[in-house]
Amino acid sequence: MVGRSLEGQYRRPRAESGEVVLAAAGLRPDGFAAPLDLELRAGEVVGVAGLLGSGRTELLEAIFGLRKREGEVAVVGNSLRAADPRESIRHGVAFVPEDRRRLGLSLRQSVLSNAGLVDLGSRSLASFLGRDQQRRILTHIREELSLKAPDDGAPIWTLSGGNQQKLVLGRWLQRRPRLLLLDDPTRAIDVLTKREVYDVIHAMAEAGAAVLIVSSELPELLGLCDRILVLRERQLAATLGDGIGEEEVAAAMAGVVFSPAGAGTGAGA
User: Fold this and answer.
1) pLDDT attached to residue 88
2) Could you tell me the CA-to-CA distances from 180 to 21, 233, 245 in Å, in that order?
3) Residue 64, H or E segment
4) What pLDDT is attached to residue 17?
5) Which of 146, 145, 153 is nearest to 111 (CA)?
6) Which helix (H) or strand (E) holds 42?
7) What are residue 94's DSSP bridge partners?
8) Distance (Å, whole) CA 228 – CA 120
9) Which DSSP string do the residues of 149-202 spell out, in sequence order?
10) Which residues contact 136 (CB under 8 A, 6 or more apart)?
11) Which of 7, 84, 151, 196 has the fewest CB neighbours in a 10 Å radius?
């Protein structure tokens, strides 16, 4: 259907990690039951798993500055103020939200206008990107992510879900972020676009960025990530590394002790 085989689970080659990109100490997003410490290094892809309501989105929003938090957060040694997304952008943090239509796009504006929204967010409210700058950004997104948007002046809602996501992700990539926060980035997109998103994640990590990704699909996390943080009841329940399977992650999410024989016993919260 898509012109090439997509069989087999995507497996990202593991790379050597570099300098510390994200360092969080005593991080407690608003509504969390307990603080947590977190460290991501250049070249790492770290996953976040958990049931709905476990605090996955809240964790990413707190790091980016969209949610109140306690504790210290630094990116490449630069401390970030709480609830200040503009400062996060200035220090190389990118955030792709779960609900791209509500939080990532301006549906009444054109494809071209949406291409410059991230840059507008990092400038003063009185400044605007010119059409030439918007076109340059859009051209880069087309080249890097194979964006299919034949009419630059068409409303962004006329694009497919996959192409809308490519534009949201592609805008951030133009800024060459050091820390990429992805909240369920392959949700409601086609299988070919998913593979293209996986390739972008791999390329970003290979270029030295650190990636923190939330996903509702356990095979996706297992294929992409060097380790997985499991949240349960708005606190860190486990950190799982190489050699784990879906059963171990699911058990940690549910709060049970995993047994290779398939038997689980309640572990409590």
Assistant:
1) 95
2) 10, 25, 25
3) helix 56-64
4) 77
5) 153
6) none
7) 180
8) 33
9) -S-TTSBGGGS-HHHHHHHHHHHHHTT--SEEEEESTTTT--HHHHHHHHHHHH
10) none
11) 7
Helix axes 131-145, 161-173, angle to 10 degrees: 110
Token reading at 200? 């972008």
Q: Which domains does the chain have, with CATH numbers?
A: 15-92+177-269 (3.40.50.300), 106-176 (no CATH)
**45-95, pLDDT tens digit by residue?**
999 999 999 999 999 999 999 999 999 999 999 999 999 999 999 999 999
What pLDDT sits at residue 250?
95
Chain centroid to CA 227: 15
Non-local (6+) Cβ contacts of 80 within 8 A are: 63, 65, 73, 74, 87, 88, 91, 93
Q: Which residues of the chain fall short of a pLDDT of 70?
A: 1-10, 13-15, 119-129, 259-269
